[in-house]
Structures are given as structure tokens and as C-alpha cells.
Amino acid sequence: MVDKARKVTRAAAGARAALGxxxxxxxxxxxxxxVFDEALRVLLVRRPKVAGEPFxxxxxxxxGFVDVDRDADLLACARRKxxxxxxxxxxxxxxxxSWGSASRDPRGWSATHAWLALLPTGGTAPEQVAVAxxxxxRPVDDAMQKGALAFDHVEILRTGxxxxxxxxxxxxxxxxxxxxxxxxxxxxxxxxxxxxxxVDKSGFRTRALAARFLAEAGTVEGDxxxxxxxxxxxxxxxxxxxxRTFSPRLGH
Amino acid sequence: MVDKARKVTRAAAGARAALGxxxxxxxxxxxxxxVFDEALRVLLVRRPKVAGEPFxxxxxxxxGFVDVDRDADLLACARRKxxxxxxxxxxxxxxxxSWGSASRDPRGWSATHAWLALLPTGGTAPEQVAVAxxxxxRPVDDAMQKGALAFDHVEILRTGxxxxxxxxxxxxxxxxxxxxxxxxxxxxxxxxxxxxxxVDKSGFRTRALAARFLAEAGTVEGDxxxxxxxxxxxxxxxxxxxxRTFSPRLGH
DNA sequence: TTAATAGTGTCTATGAGACAGTATCAA
DNA sequence: TTGATACTGTCTCATAGACACTATTAA
Lengths: 252, 252
Known about the structure:
Two copies of one chain form a homodimer. Chain A has 252 residues and is of the alpha+beta class. The first copy, chain A, has helices at residues 2-9, 74-83, 140-143, 153-168, 184-195, 201-210; strands spanning 25-36, 39-46, 59-60, 63-65, 92-101, 110-118, 135-139, 182-183, 214-220, 228-233. Chain A is elongated and about 65 Å long. The relative contact order of chain A is 0.15. The first copy, chain A, binds a DNA duplex (27 and 27 nucleotides) through α6.
């Protein structure tokens, strides 16, 4: 933080750079989701209260400038930004989009590469995604309020929530929010929290099993009296897509 | 071109810039699609044959560095890049993703913001999307071949084709490839070209009309003897989404 | 035995896919 | 009248949604 503040005070003097172009500021921001205590939550950090830093003391998405010496590519940069704030878990990453304009950062023309990250939790085990002191997991409904975040981060967060909810309708993406092994009722509850509405048990089971993204992992003592089948994801890199319309029938 | 070359020769001396960070190069590239002569085509431009320019004489996606003095935001930059190469049409734009790494551009750490653009044509009227001399509309199957394009543009193009094909399965996105007014058989042919497979006529009509994104525009002399109903898009900014699974029934 | 949750079966309506048929125009 | 294409009707089957039912455990 101190080091960062010192850098900032050097200000925007030498921005005119190679190739005859003023180079925009390049940053990466991460919309990191986790589900626990029956709520969809997003990781936020406080902006430093230091002269020259915009939005001092305000909540913001974790992120910052690309470091060309440390980051091999954009994903590596996003991973670093998240690793700085959370315990070591293996989150799912997906590009969310870019926000770039002359006005979004008072320090100059700025473009940020936003990433969506999903952290696996036990549903009631936030210690698995423990955070740095100045960071916090906040319910998305609070964080999405107008003016709740620095920069244009509310808009970025809204896009992230939309993406997650949209993909929850037809992919197994919410499964990346669960630590393994998990039971089908647990997965169903994640879907209900993400979508914000109840989901039919029978239909959910049928669809989830038909999508062939789960591997049985033995009986697990679940949240109830009767043990349930535990599952792991067959592929922790890409969600499965549920059958959709407007495509030819597959079987014969 | 001459001016651009002169800029390049200044090389990477002053890249260390404001805020204590070396700023990556920021560019925008456009994957612009059009359909004519029964093929899905992508707009390509030749890289200048000038000392200091990487990939001289090779085909590449239209694009280039963000100009912080001319571009208010990333979309404006993408529009400018496309306007430089094509006649004045009003294309559909959608963010495709970011590609950024230390190695993708020999001139230094570079991040590009890629956009998908769809240009409306009459299906057999390429003059509506006329291009600059050094540019060309190439069938995507050729351009997607390994090594066919400069930088990592084949990968970006592949992502664009995937996005378009994927969305063609459940949205009205391909309609943005048609000049108005158009007939349902014309729209169906666009879907068939994009998807690369035949589409059932009856089902297509039912779905297209049920999705409520079309407005009747009077009878049009189509490609055949019998005139067909002409249609316009109700909303030229966002495609309509066809009903999907895993969502509650809407009517009662 | 009871409570609680895991998991299954069944009915119904919708709607996609396939394809045959009818309508309307030019020549 | 013929040919070509626009457009409609109909049959079938898969499956989503709703909900009632059975199974298996702890206490």
C-alpha cells in the first residue's frame, strides 16, 4: 500500500510513450463470487485513503494495473489480483468484458479487463475463502446499489451478476461455487440462491444427471439424517451446457 | 500508412510512464462478419510492408492502437477502425473478449480489446459493405486456417465464429447480417450459412415469428416468383433470445 | 415411530422436428 | 399449365413442469 501510494504521486507526466501514442492505463478487475449463508456474495476491497488515489476509502472490486514484469498475460494478472486478497483456492475464471474510456478514471484514459471468478465453498464455510483484512464478502444486492462502489464498478458487477444468472439457466456454471464433494440438494440450493427462485427437485435432478458433468464420489453425510450421494465435477475448467432448443435432435 | 510507419520508428523507449507502471500497448481489433455469395465472410486487411511493422504484408483483422485523443471509449475506437475500412453502414457491435500477454506483439506487452461486428447486406449485395483497397472480405473457413493471419488473430477470429454460431442457436443475432427489409426465407438462408446446416422451414418460421423481434414491412418482391412478406427488426441494438429450457413457463 | 431429507414415479401440456400439403406468383 | 417458391397444417415424440409418492437415515 505504501509502495503503491508512492508510485501514484509520480502522476501522469510521462504517459506519452512508445509508437507515438499516448498509452491508456491498463488494469484488471475481478468480480469474484461465493455463496455462503444463503446469499450470493461478491468480494470487495477498500480503496486506500491516500492522497492522489481516487475514491479513497470507498469499496471497489479487487484489481489494479497490469504489471508487465510480473504478469505473463491477462489471466495471470487476474489470478494475482485475486490471490492477493483471498486464501489459496482454485477458482474458476472467465472473461467478463472490457470497460475503457477517457472518463472512467480521473488519472487518465483507462481500460480495464474485467474477469468473473467463482470460488468454491461448502455453502456455509466462508473460512475456505478467507480474505485479507481490508477485504470483505458482501451480498451482491447491497453492492449493486447505485453509488455503492468506486469507478464504474457497479456496472461491472451488474454485468457479472447478469452473466452468472444467465448461465445458471442453461449451464452447470453454479457448480463451480461448491467445494467437492457436494450433494445434489446442495447444488440445487446454490442454483436457487443464484437464480433467486425455487427450483423443482425432480426436474433439477433429471437435468443435472442427464448433462453428464458429475462423477459419483461415494455416499456423503449431508445436511440431513439420510446420507446423500456425493459428486465431483468431471471437468473443473468448463461448465457443461444443458440441451437447448433450435438444434437438431442428437439421438437418431 | 506513412505517418503510422514514422511513429513506429520511435520504438519502445518511453514506455515507462505515469503511475510508476510500464503501460502495456492498448489496441482494438474488430471481427467484422458479412454474408454474401452463400458464404460467411470476415473483413481482413493487409499489414503494411514497412520496416518496424510486425507481420508485413500479412492478412490481419482490422484494428490498431487506441487513440486517447480521438476515441472517447472502446466502442468508439472499434467503430473508427471499422469505418476506416468500409462504407458507411450501421453495424451491430458486441464485445468479444480481450487478448493480452507479453508475447503476442513483438513490440511489447500488448492487450487488445476484440469486438464482433455484423454488417447488414442483401445477401448478394457486397457493394453495400464496400471496402478500402487494402481490405477484403474472405470466407471464414479460409481465414481460420492455422497461420493464415498475423498476431493471434486466428484465435480471435475463431472465438468470433464460435460466438456467432453459438448465438445463432438461440437468438436472432444473424438477423443483423441482413439489410432491411428482408423476407423470412432470406433470414432462414442466413441462419443456414452461419450454422452450416439446413434449417427446417416450418419450424424456423414458427420460432422466428413467436420471438416477436420482427415488424412487418409490406410485401416484397423476393428472390422468387411469389412475393413474400418483408420484415424489419423491432430493435436494431439487441438480439432477441428464443425461449430456452430451465426457466419457468411464462404464460400462466 | 416420528421427523427430516434423499430420491423416484407419473401425469400433462408444450413445442420441436419432420414432412406433406396448399397458396400465389411469373412465364 | 408448369415451375418455383412462399407459406401452412399435422403427426409424433421428447421432455419440462408440477407434485405426489417412496426410501433411508437419526433420534
